[in-house]
Amino acid sequence: MSEVRGNEHAEPLQEVLSRWGTDAREGLSSTEVKRRAEIYGGNVLERPPEPGLLRRFMAQFSDFLVIILILAALVSGLLGETLDAAVISIIVLLNAVIGLIQEGKAEQALKSLEKLSAPNARVLRHGVPAVIPASEVVPGDIILLEAGDRIPADVRLIETHTFRCDESALTGESVPVDKDASVVLPVEADLAERRNMAYAGTVVTQGRARGVVVATGMRTEVGKIAGALKSVVREKTPLQKSLTTLGKVLGIIVLAISFGIFVLGIARGERPLDMFLVAVSLAVAAIPEGLPAVVTVVLAIGIKKMAAQNAIVKKLPAVETLGSTTVICSDKTGTITQNEMTVVAAYAGGKFFYKENIPEEILGRFQAEGFAEPDPFPGSLPLTVPGVTFGTGEMGSSADPPVPAIPSRAEQDLSFTLFGAALASDAVILDSGTQVSGNSVNATPNNGYHNRSKDTIHKDIIGDPTEVALVAAALEAGFNKSKLEKRFPRVGEIPFDSVRKRMTTVHSLPGGRHLILVKGAPEMVLASCLYNHETFQAFNRANLIMAEHGLRVIAVAYRILGALPDRISEDLETDLVPTGLLGMIDPPRPGVAEAVARCKEAGIMPIMITGDNPVTALAIARMVGIAGQNDRCMSGQELASIDTEALASKVKEIRVYGRVSPDHKVKIVDAFKIRGEVVAMTGDGVNDAPALKRADIGVSMGITGTDVAKEAADMVLADDNFATIVTAVAEGRTIYSNIAKFVVYLLSCNMGEIVAVTGSMLMRLPLILQPVQILWLNLVTDGFPALALGFEPGEPDAMKRPPRPPSEPLLTGRRWSTILIQAFLIGAATVGVFLHGMRAGSDGDYSRTLAFVTLGFAELLRAFTARSETKSVFSTGLFRNTFMNAGVLISFALILLVVEVPVLSAVFSTVNLSARDWGVAFLYGLIPATGNEIAKFIRRRRETIS
To answer: How does residue 143 score in pLDDT terms, banded at 50, 70 and 90?
Structure first.
């Protein structure tokens, strides 16, 4: 182990490994990792220091109106009104404390979300691949890289396979750079020329590689320039921006009203200081300057709740968009289905083979199509590879296998099909000594797709789920991939990608010959094969039968060459011999059919987009309810043949897209957007990033998703489940609805205070409320009850309503009418009880106390009716929201204290009230709540009639 040098590109590989004290095949031990973490620290870039507690606290006093209020307290103190000055100061401090606490909660929630969406890395620990947080990578770690990964540290490459990196973020090079682990470069080589290195922050665009970490954190190349990097700026959501604008507009209006009240009071002979304090207090209470901040709290806490349900929302604006989603475009594999592939059928040698868990209708279909009677999969199979003699146990079995005839172009052999499928895969058997028995091996994803056999739980296979199923099927037939690879070492490969839809591997044979193995989509592989018309028709019919019944079909072919060309290219994928077809099934996830039905009920159109065969895709779509019997599937070829405008005219009638490339996803999104739809699009690969960015909601897979896809997405599914998307949409609707309830409630209460004060002044009544009383009510109602509305449980019919139009403002005409009507009723109830107190012949303090308590009751009772915009307060469960119950009780207690506690009543200019007085205030306070319930009842009746 050594210090970071930065010249590893100029050193022989063995020297680098030796200096870092690591083994290229084993990696580091847990003890060594811990020791190095203590020496080098975490693999993170230093962030700019965050403002301290004192600075954040002082920022609470930067608002213009709060500054005016502080000046008013100072003026009051200088004029000898020490009590008023003290009370105003205390209330201002309490407001600042509450604001600081709310900001702290929002920051903590957002930080926890950042941790949830942090990137991972694959490393070797004790010789076993492990997925760890990228922040835990240490120098000397052996790291595994593949297409789509964002490289977490500076790496000296050990081996590369068609490996390319996008280094534009670091070097400005716009074209991906080819990497070669075998070269040793001059010390003076520029960063962009170091082909044997991969650097932190860059992206793997093709191939795979293995390397040793030589620098982490601030010691990486990107860390060296970290001082020039800007800290992340969290963008405001459209809702926050609109509320900020609303606050400014209302602020101007309220300031004008407050000034008018001040002038009116002076004209009536009131003390200028009293009227100044009333005007300022009313402005502070009425202007919703804290709305954007409180909305941030509600959004952040709501997002944290969504994260607990496996939907990690990375960007606050996404929550607003979720509620407007009209189309969900979802991948099939692993999202709609379980990603637990099992080989259940095969076609080889002109014959059909099956396993016990195959859908029964396929067997009858094969016989109806004229194929020979299907046979069960054999327990073990013999194998001959031209020019190769096997020794005892070389294929994984305990004895020499029987030697059948060499597979010919006329007799495609099941054993050779399984052999070829296993070797042309990257899946790895971790424990090559364990045997698998039985006919049921499922690929269950678990931190790198660990596959645990139902019959032998000690067996682990890691890799892509499809390849895991292929390797497991071969193992059942007696072909252990780990042992076969020692006899047939891989000397070259052409990786799978979503355009070619196939993978090719090259293996050494005795006598200088080479075995070319190709596996992939049948239409792509078979198109490169040589065979007669009859064989071609038989393969196509077998493929169609399996695909029509929901099986994913993989074709396997081979070719034997002498010397290899200088460059491994797609020219090797010609003149192939087809060996057979393997059919596997990936059953739908539990709950997906219900989620699809829920989507449709909510006015959301679910769409399936997959790289699978269109017929296979349509079969699965019908199983979960996305497609009906009369719906059709559009293929990638069809998509490529029409323009976006033409697709837009058809897109509403198409529910399934098969054999789709990432570029096609962008076209589908654009077609829906032309029609004004709000689109959620899922993706997991590097090439999916453009579609994820183009969609209104980009959704990346948390398990199978690449780092690039996760970064481009607005939301990450921790469980890769379609049902989670629907849950997130429902939660997004609830959050948005709660924000609307909160804003309507707060504005109606604030405007109610304006109506009460302005109305009393116009009626030439005495001062209806003292400044400290206004401020206290503002503190009480803006706090607990209003925030509790943000925690209101979702309404049962939230997913039975159509999506909200994205252009619809938060404050619709209906909501503005609610605000104005409630403000009038709150003001009228307050003025009415004030007149009641005056008729009793008591002094002004008694009437003001009644008005103060009534206004408090009106706003607290109004909170209960604000919990639903349509339903009765009794049908929603009067005490269902425990936060609301607690908030109202605390607020009522605070009102009770300033009335009944002698010390506080003197401060707030209140008098003790009798039980009858409290009853009168409660009844007047019920008027706004009752009015709101009547309005909702009338609205429900109208909707029922219409």
So the answer is: very high
pLDDT digits (tens, 9 = 90+) for 429-462: 875 443 333 333 333 333 233 333 333 322 478 7
Average pLDDT of span 264-270: 82
Q: Could you read off the pLDDT of 834-869 as tens digits, one per residue? A: 999 988 766 788 999 999 999 999 999 999 999 998
Q: Which two tokens stand for residue 611?
A: 């790289």
- Amino acid identity, position 449: Y
| C-beta of residue 750 within 8 angstroms of C-beta of residue 820 | no
The label of the residue with tokens 């405008």 reads 645
Q: What is the mean pLDDT of residues 482-501?
A: 87
Mean pLDDT of 885-912: 90
DSSP string for residues in 381-449: -----TT----TTTTSSSSPPP--PPP-SSS--HHHHHHHHHHT---EES-TT----SS------STTT
User: Which amino acid is located at 233 in the chain?
Assistant: V
Sign of CA dihedral 777, 781, 784, 787: negative
- Chain centre distance of CA 711: 10
Measured between alpha carbons, how far is 781 from 856 in angstroms, rounded to an integer? Answer: 8
SS3 assignment, position 16:
helix
- The C-alpha atoms of residue 149 and residue 198 are separated, in whole angstroms, by 11
C-alpha to C-alpha distance for 748 and 759, rounded to whole angstroms: 16
Tokens of 320: 């607003």
Whole-number Å distance between alpha carbons of 271 and 910: 20
3-state secondary structure 660-701: CCHHHHHHHHHHHHHCCCCEEEEECCHHHHHHHHHCCEEEEE
Residue 812's contacts (CB-CB under 8 Å, 6 or more residues apart) are: none
How many secondary structure helices (H) and strands (E) does the chain include? 32, 25
CA-to-CA distance for 746 and 866, rounded, in angstroms?
Answer: 10
Identify the three-state secondary structure at position 151: coil
Over residues 321-367, the pLDDT tens digits come to 888 899 999 988 778 887 778 888 899 888 888 886 576 667 777 76
Whether the model clears a pTM of 0.70, i.e. scores above it, the answer is no
The secondary structure of residue 811, as a DSSP letter, is S
User: Widest CA span of the chain, in angstroms?
Assistant: 117
pLDDT (tens digit per residue) in 728-767:
999 889 888 888 898 899 889 888 988 998 888 888 888 8
What is the dihedral angle through the alpha carbons of 699, 702, 706, 711, rounded to the nearest 10 degrees? 50
Structural contact between residues 738 and 790, judged by C-beta atoms closer than 8 angstroms: yes
Both tokens of residue 938? 């009338």
Alpha-carbon distance values, 138 to 11, 154, 390, 895 (Å): 20, 10, 43, 58
**Token pair of 285 as six digits:** 């209470």
Active site residues: 331
User: Which contiguous run of DSSP H or E holds residue 143?
Assistant: strand 142-146
Q: Give the span between the Cα atoms of 201 and 168, in whole angstroms.
A: 10
Q: What are phi and psi of 668, to 5 degrees?
A: -65, -45
pLDDT value at position 599? 94
Specify whether the CB–CB gap between 557 and 579 falls below 8 A. yes
d(CA 849, CA 925): 13
Residue 486 CA from chain centroid, whole number: 42
Query: What is the distance between the terminal CA atoms of the chain, rounded to a whole angstrom?
Result: 78
Which residue has tokens 């207690």?
893
3-class DSSP assignment, residue 826: helix
